[in-house]
Amino acid sequence: MKNVFVIYDDRKKPGYEIRGITGGNSFGNTIYKRKSLREIAEHHVEDPQLEKNGIRTKFWLLDADHEPELSSFSPKTPVVHIFSDCAVVNPAEFRLLLRKAVHIRERFIVKDDIKTAAVLFPDIESWEEMMDEADSTDAVRAATEDDTEIEADAFADISGRDAFLSFITSGFEARFFNSVAGDEYNVVKTSTNCKKIHAEYSFYHLLPDHMKYWFVEPYDYKEEKGAASYTMERMHMTDLAIRYVHGAISLEEFDRILGNLFRFIGSRDARPVSWEAFYGRRKELYIDKVLSRTAELKRHPEYPKLDAMLRSGTRFNGIDQIVNEYIALYDRLIGKNNENIVEVVGHGDLCFSNILYSSEVNLMRFIDPKGAESKDELFTDPAYDIAKLSHSICGSYDFMNSGLYEISVDEGMNLNLRIDGDNHAYKEAFRKKLEELGIDFRMIRLFECSLFLSMLPLHMDRPNKVLAFVLNAIRIMQEIKQ
């Protein structure tokens, strides 16, 4: 068994434009697909496949607060020094690079185009000599720029704004579609669920002209080989979810964002409906959907484990009692305020991950609407889009979807949910905005609660996240009662 040490150099700070997206986080602390880039790199370093190939690896972080201490190890151990502004994008190539490292007898570099992404040192001594001379990421790169290069397609330079945006915005979860591909000009969304893709494509073309301004236009719809696709312009803007979870949105900017969002809310075409139709749609969205999804959840093979956790770790006797408490709250609050009995043309999934925004020019565009095949299907309950916003702003959905939460057990054996983010000031700004517009904040939170309950079976590929959603729904109900 041969040893290789990997040094993850996270000293290079992102430029101003990227800090505006990540909230000042380092490259290594940037969240991508529910994990930090540092955690992803560490995962690749500790890949079990390497040990099967006779290589034992150890990961070390190098930043302002951490310095690898290698003096107690064999001085002949090779060292691979990687830079956090070049992300690992090809794990197989990266593993091959680590396998090559055990055979080198001199220093080599690996580049992504023109930037050095990694430096391979034949032993600890040569690495320590470099560290004595080079006190920064730039200094290491400068000192090694004339070294022999090893070809390896393992990294992508993400230090530039456009490259960073292209990389970080590819980190969505493909639940209802198979792939999103494209280049710096276009994005192509493809799925074997042809019906859904066609509905998303048709949605835009059915919209009233004055509402098309808000949406990225889909075009070039195709069906071939059992899959459907459409193309969109790549907007080179981040979605709000990425910036929200990184703490990169100031309250001043958030106020502008709310202004844009409620300008859209106010622009939606509306048409009057009967009292029966209005509350019938609400029952369908906020009661019937919860009940049908709960039944679907119970059919999942992993459900008994979730049920046992809820029974032992909460005051509820299973999911049915939680849903019943939600329905009781619904019956108590619904119809208690003066509302326009109308239905509106809505986005249908107006969460932060579907909202693209550029703070530089105050430009907002929406993607991934629910879809429609007729003009009637464009219409929905006026509160639904607002509940989806609350889902992100007040309900911390994007934090949980990014893995930024923790479930713990207290001394009384009760389950507790902790979110790795403070949204109190944003929640209060949202509440005040609704108050200004005469919208019942508690009712919106109630509908938000239904969103968490109705999405449970859709996320059972990650049971821990489903448990977090349930605990969050319980917390929302407690907040509504206060």
Can you tell me about this structure?
This protein is of the alpha+beta class. It folds into 3 domains: 2-170, Spore Coat Polysaccharide Biosynthesis Protein SpsA, Chain A; 186-233, no CATH class; 240-481, Aminoglycoside 3'-phosphotransferase, Chain: A, domain 2 (Alpha-Beta Complex). The protein has helices at residues 16-22, 37-45, 48-52, 91-101, 124-133, 137-144, 161-168, 194-206, 240-245, 251-267, 275-298, 303-313, 319-333, 382-393, 397-401, 424-436, 441-454, 463-481, and strands at 2-9, 31-32, 35-36, 55-62, 79-83, 86-88, 108-112, 115-121, 148-149, 155-157, 179-182, 186-191, 218-224, 227-233, 238-239, 270-272, 342-345, 355-358, 363-366, 379-380, 405-409, 415-419. A 6-stranded mixed beta sheet has the order 4-1-5-8-7-9, with helices on both faces. Strands 11-12-14-13 form a 4-stranded antiparallel beta sheet, with helices on one face. The chain is globular. Mean pLDDT is 92; it is low at 172-177.
Task: Provide a quick synopsis of the model.
With 482 residues, the chain is an alpha+beta fold. Helix content is 43%, strand content 20%.
List the helices and strands and how they pair.
Elements lengths: L1 E8 L6 H7 L8 E2 L2 E2 H9 L2 H5 L2 E8 L16 E5 L2 E3 L2 H11 L6 E5 L2 E7 L2 H10 L3 H8 L3 E2 L5 E3 L3 H8 L10 E4 L3 E6 L2 H13 L11 E7 L2 E7 L4 E2 H6 L5 H17 L2 E3 L2 H24 L4 H11 L5 H15 L8 E4 L9 E4 L4 E4 L12 E2 L1 H12 L3 H5 L3 E5 L5 E5 L4 H13 L4 H14 L8 H19 L1
Parallel strand pairs: 1-4, 1-5, 7-9
Antiparallel strand pairs: 2-3, 5-8, 6-10, 7-8, 11-12, 12-14, 13-14, 15-18, 16-17, 17-20, 18-19, 21-22
